[in-house]
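R.M. (postdoc): so does anyone remember the format we settled on? I'll just put the structure tokens first.
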């Protein structure tokens, strides 16, 4: 009697991670573009360091990078692979569904970590921004937390929309709105009502938590509320994205 050996979960995860990291390395041109956007913002905002502070400049750069990775990078890659039948073929084998998405998200979190470290390095070398050791550590973890929010938002979009071209256009529209409305609204350019709304939008709460984490001594109750709002967005977007997602 022939028996079927089911691979262990650790073995499956290891294989999926190797495949996903290999894929992102082969598409490193796209990876470089995603990483260059926040670095370009960081360098171009050098003149704002003396006016608004180094933490504000770094937080803004990280927030823009998180949006690029969560919306443009993760969402479009999932939509493309689903359209090509990659997920459907993976599910034929002895692979748990959660390991497939967990591997994808792990790769994106690793990208977020690399991006954050690059921003810290360029901030020190080019913009001459220096923070406390605690500020760098807290800001690093705040960036990962903010990245989870945008990854869950991307998961919701790709779960709601099946067509990869529509996913691409939708994520670009959301990206544009977050960048333009978020940045201009946070400066008060669009009025007080928009400024208040932006503060509690996904862009606003992530930017506030990251900026305050870079200077932990400035943490207030308002920041705690922003952190709770960020966690709430992540849970809601994630649950909806999982519920709506179709594998084919």
């Amino acid at each position: 009697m022939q028996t079927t050996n089911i691979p262990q979960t650790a073995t499956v995860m290891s294989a999926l991670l190797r495949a996903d990291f290999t894929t992102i390395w082969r598409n490193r041109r796209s990876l470089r573009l995603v990483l260059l956007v926040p670095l370009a913002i960081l360098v171009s905002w050098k003149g704002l360091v003396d006016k608004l502070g180094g933490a504000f400049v770094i937080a803004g750069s990280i927030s823009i990078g998180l949006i690029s990775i969560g919306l443009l990078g993760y969402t479009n890659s999932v939509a493309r692979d689903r359209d090509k039948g990659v997920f459907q073929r993976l599910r034929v084998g002895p692979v748990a569904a959660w390991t497939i998405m967990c591997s994808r998200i792990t790769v994106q979190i690793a990208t977020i970590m690399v991006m954050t470290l690059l921003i810290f390095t360029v901030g020190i070398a080019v913009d001459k921004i220096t923070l406390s050791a605690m500020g760098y550590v807290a800001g690093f973890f705040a960036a990962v937390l903010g990245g989870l929010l945008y990854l869950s938002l991307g998961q919701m979009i790709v779960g709601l929309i099946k067509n990869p071209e529509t996913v691409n256009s939708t994520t670009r529209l959301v990206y544009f709105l977050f960048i333009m409305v978020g940045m201009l609204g946070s400066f008060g350019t669009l009025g007080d009502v928009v400024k208040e709304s932006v503060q509690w939008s996904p862009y606003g709460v992530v930017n506030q938590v990251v900026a305050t984490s870079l200077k932990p001594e400035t943490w207030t109750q308002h920041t705690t509320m922003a952190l709770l709002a960020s966690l709430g967005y992540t849970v809601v977007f994630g649950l909806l994205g999982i519920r709506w997602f179709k594998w084919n």
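R.M.: ...and that's the designed sequence above, right after the tokens. Also worth knowing: The two ends are 34 Å apart (CA to CA). The chain has eleven helices and no strands.
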